[in-house]
Specification:
four-stranded parallel beta sheet, 769 residues, single chain, 23 strands, 23 helices, 31% helix
Amino acid sequence: MNRPADCIPRAGALDALLPLVEKPTRYVGGEWNQVVKDPAAIDVSIALAFPDVYEIGMSHLGFRILYAMLNEREDWAAERCFMPWHDMLALLRERELPLVTLETRRPLAAFDVVGFSMQSELTITNVLAMLERGGIPLLASERAERDPLVLMGGPVIFNPEPFADFADAILAGDAEEALPAMLERYQTLRREGASRLEILRAIARIDGWYVPGLYDVEPEPRLGMLIPRPKPGEDVPPRVRRAIVYDLDRFPYPAKIVVPHAEIVHDRVSWEVMRGCPVGCRFCQAGYVYRPTRERDPAAVAEGIRRSLAETGYDSFSLSSLNTGEYTPVEPLMTSLMDELEPRRISVGLGSLHASTMTETLAEQVRRVRKSGFTMAPEAGTQRLRDVINKNLTEEQILEACRLAFVADWKLLKLYFMLGLPTETDEDVDGIAELAGKVLEIGRRIGGSRVRITCSASTFIPKPFTPFQWCGMVPEEVFSARQERLRRAMPRGVTFRHHPRAESWLEGVLSRADRSVGRAILGAYRRGAVLDAWSEHLRLDVWRAAFVEAGIDAEALATRDIPLDAELPWEVIDTQLRRRWLEHEYHRAHAVRTVDPCGPTSCAGCAPFAVECVKGILSEKKTWRASPPAPPAVPATEPEVPPDERPLPVYRWRARFEKQGPARFLGHLDLVRALQQSFRRAGILLEHTRGFKPRPKVALSPALGLGIASCDEYLDFETTVRLEPPEFLARINASLPEGLRFLALVPLDGARVSLQEAIRRATYRARIP
């Protein structure tokens, strides 16, 4: 079903650009565990397009899940494409080259389906840039039969209307069932010769799928917002029901995730243990639209983490969810895993914890092997405001959680707050500084003067399908005054950081907009807006001009309060949350009343599936019984040795290797990282340094310039066991990414001579055009 591309890049044309850009590893491909299929041998080709840079897209859990899941089908091929940075985008435009995927370097226009993962409203201009460079018309109404279907999904599209002009179909909810169902329907209909419109009509009848082109809009009488209605004669639902996967264990998390060449934002094995959150913070969209809370089987989590560490070579993992401390078996699971993995110098991490779930056991497990900063999100500085937002958290719980972190020897603690919350007063702002001061006092008393506290304040943004969706943002002048008040009140010894309000304001505009804003989005892009989620590239003047040109009062979209009886554009999506219940939560917030976290013994009746939640069918709590671990990933000849009981002697080695193909674009630190991961995949245990952050004892020959291939480079390393060179070469070469290959290994005996001292000369060979 693959179409011929209009613009296939010339051989070597893209390679010629790589030495000219800041981070060429974003564009080379060839990573460990990537999947490359012959385009001629598959039925459906899918370009998974992430509208942000490589380091962010490669960190996203959903992106990893879909890539592995879709490529399990022999007749489907999923490839990756990311938003190029400004330097690469400018070169592609200047030389009229297309944006291509990493796997086969085909333009987006050559694929059957292009799916965008929308994690932020501000990435919409990136979507337009990727479509344009990929050879696809920007507007869905202008796409022809041979153009790919453009899909969107992710949390942002719970208000799909601002993006409706650009998407052929939009998925609301979990993708594990809904996306394959859509692709199977597409595959069947395309084979039968169905038209593009016939395929879209069929997609619109699958749970979770919204096809904007089959809906008209009409103004709502109170505020004039445009409300989607099915077009006359179209058999589509008035409200599109969210797709929900109730049993996560039916869709195991992939162990063979792609290992990027360069360090990414979340550079570790991240394992989703739970979806949804039971707490119910009233500002948190994810906490509402991903209900009910569903937990994964801890035995499957433990086994999956073991396999993924072996398949990737990572030396750290994290248990991921919106609120991992609420995962029922988190303590015994972490204890069991760390007892098993600590001897291999593998560490564990957790995201921001709800302070009420912080325990001495959690603090102790996370601190094993190595520690980074510890993060907590009180969100508000006073108890009154924490009750307004239903944080279900007291000051005593916050201070106790911080105390446990300091006792466990953390020196850096990050506190996250939010400014501009509904009903916020100056007293609430002062409360942030007072709470930060109390945390600092506890830290200094336990950890001394080396303790550092960072206090970050983001901006409240009203999000659809939350109790605060009817509340406007505070005006710019009020917000600036509160921000400055907090800066002045912050005690000495606490570092204060804040999120730029310009980004938050634009996000607020887009999060509560209707379909008319599509004109402004296109206008802003035509005026040069791109990479808007990066504050140094956001051009707010361009956006304001585009809003004016489109006749849109952007300030009102962001700051006005919406009447509770007004119909809302985003209600074309049925999240299966009761609107009446959200209204009750709005009133409870303004009455400073809290609601207990969801659970079998406490249910507020938020959704039609609430009865099942109470029975424990959907939110079944998982139990953990530690079972004997799977056979170790390392061979029996290399036992796992506790770090404080290492045998002597330590063996020192020098290896010779070559670096060709995509590997020649690895920077020095990226090369070190890639080699260390390859050693772990090969089961070769390296000797580590002692101290706060143990590191493998390795040294490389002098760094080459980026893009220079090599026939002879050298690596010194130490092991706790004797290696046999032929066996070592076979094992390590089977574990290296494309372009790296070891050629020889010799033992180093006698006095230590560093590589820097041993290497006296280098020979270069250059081809002159």
